[in-house]
Description:
Number of helices: 5
Number of strands: 0
Largest sheet: none
Radius of gyration: 16 Å
Shape: elongated
Low-confidence stretches: none
Mean pLDDT: 83
Order of helices and strands: HHHHH
Structural class: mainly alpha
Helix content: over 70%
Amino acid sequence: xxxxxxxxxxxxxxxxxxxxxxxxxxxxxxxxxxxxxxxxxxxxxxxxxxxxxxxxxxxxxxxxxxxxxxxxxxxxxxxxx
Length: 81
């Protein structure tokens, strides 16, 4: 959890425009804090299904997140253009 927080925090610092970094960092912190409750959601899903469904659902969501991450653009490239 801590490694993810450090890596995503650094990504925000790299990608965010300098004047919006405080806002982006605050939003990222709030979103990550909200994400801690997903373990409760996982327990609820597991209560009504099985591990195969839960892991398959997680794998689908991670694949979607990976595909969406390819749409991220480096802020330095945009400034150079």
